[in-house]
Design goal:
mainly alpha, globular, 2 domains, Growth Hormone, Chain: A, 17 helices
Length: about 425
């Protein structure tokens, strides 16, 4: 039954990763078909992310209270219905409404996939294997989304890309319904509603969240800057740029085999901080040496991907071990929130630095001066993010040390007899 359950949970994570990547390639087609403005198209993608980000923690808290499996199944039903409804969309406003519904579904299901996988096993080794499997399936979706989406659009309408969610949701629903038992009422959270409880829980597992945040910050910054460099600074076509990112994709997918041996050799805590440090090192390599040729860019992509592959699993497992057993879904939501927030901050910082140092339209043909400005912006933005991410890693190490340091025994008092 565990195999069936993991199939369902993997399908949940596949939906999140595939949905994010496959729709991007269809935005120009959607714009033409629905006569949508650039701002409206941005809302198509941002509405999903906003609903997902805002509702993840409260819906995860609800799942810990009323049942993780129950919330998961309701979310999958919403996903299937909202995705199916896109077949009759005629305006961009309708599409935005359905994208919001999909964001709600993602908030109900994504943290639950990690929480339920964690609760299926008692041993860290089995938990890591389960999480590795789920994340690998998701990363495959992230990798194949754009090329598959482009291929499908050559002969089918864009709605097909969202209709793919329907069979994925149905598969996940059936597998979870059959193979995962309903939550034991004794294992649900029955305490009072605490509006700021998530902040308190975050403090108790802050080291794992710091490592996850550092990785998200560095990865988002590298992805943003490297994509612009390959296409705008070096003149690569989108297809060539996609090929240029293949080292990262290959390591993300194949690197799952590294996680078990790394954790076995280093332990959970050391594996978490060392893998997040590898991500930061990759960004540093790109920031300083990426301008000198693709070989350095490829090296940075490999370092970031290898570190991200490990920290994505071990930091999440570390966080879930640190929260009370009846708050695992909130713990999983904290992991996702840390990653999403850090990614948004990374892109915002890189974009702000670029907008400040680069004059003119970045998408137009550059002068020699603009090319120099871009190089300066990449170095400045990359090193700024490197310093911030390194600070998070250092802080996470300090917190991890303080959280695991044994409490000294209380001094003993002696009574002397005259």
């Amino acid at each position: 039954m565990h195999k069936i359950a993991l199939t369902g949970l993997s399908a949940v994570f596949l939906f999140e990763m595939l949905d994010n990547s496959i729709l991007t390639v269809a935005l120009p087609t959607i714009g033409r078909d629905l006569h949508a403005s650039t701002a409206a198209l941005q809302l198509v993608t941002s509405s999903y992310a906003i609903a997902f980000g805002l509702l993840m923690l409260p819906l995860s808290a609800l799942a810990d209270r009323v049942g993780r499996r129950r919330i998961m199944l309701v979310g999958l039903a919403i996903l299937a219905l909202a995705s199916l409804a896109t077949a009759v969309v005629t305006t961009v406003e309708q599409l935005v409404v359905f994208r919001i519904a999909m964001g709600v579904a993602a908030a109900m299901t994504t943290p639950g996939s990690l929480s339920l996988a964690f609760r299926m096993f008692d041993a860290d080794e089995l938990r890591i294997k389960a999480t590795t499997l789920i994340s690998t399936v998701g990363l495959v979706g992230l990798a194949v989304g754009p090329p598959v989406g482009g291929f499908v659009l050559a002969f089918a309408p864009w709605q097909v890309l969202l209709l793919v969610n329907v069979p994925i949701a149905v598969l996940a629903f059936v597998c979870i319904r059959v193979a995962i038992a309903a939550d034991d009422p004794a294992e649900l959270y029955r305490g009072p509603v605490k509006p700021f409880e998530a902040l308190k829980l975050a403090g108790s597992v802050s080291s794992g969240l710091a490592f996850k945040g550092a990785a998200g910050l560095a990865t988002a910054g590298l992805g943003y800057l490297a994509t612009l460099q390959l296409q705008l600074a070096w003149g690569w076509t989108p297809a060539q740029a996609a090929l240029g990112m293949l080292p990262q994709v290959a390591v993300l997918i194949a690197g799952g085999a590294l996680i078990g041996p790394v954790v076995k050799r280093l332990g959970l805590d050391r594996a978490a901080w060392m893998s997040s440090a590898a991500v930061v090192a990759g960004l540093a390599v790109y920031s300083v040496l990426g301008r000198f040729g693709y070989g350095w860019v490829a090296l940075s992509l490999v370092l970031v991907a290898a570190g991200l592959r490990v920290v994505g699993v071990v930091a999440g497992t570390s966080v879930l071990k640190g929260v009370p057993s009846d708050r695992t879904t909130v713990g999983a939501a904290l992991v996702d929130t840390a990653s999403e927030l850090a990614s948004a901050i990374g892109i915002a910082i890189a974009g702000t630095v670029l907008a400040t140092l680069f004059t003119g339209n970045v998408a137009s043909t550059w002068t020699v001066q603009q090319a120099d400005q871009f190089t300066t912006a990449v170095t400045t933005g990359g090193l700024t993010l490197t310093v911030l991410a390194a600070a998070l890693v250092a802080w996470g190490i300090a917190r991890s040390t303080s959280q695991t340091r044994p409490t000294p025994p209380a001094p003993q008092t002696t009574t002397e007899n005259g």
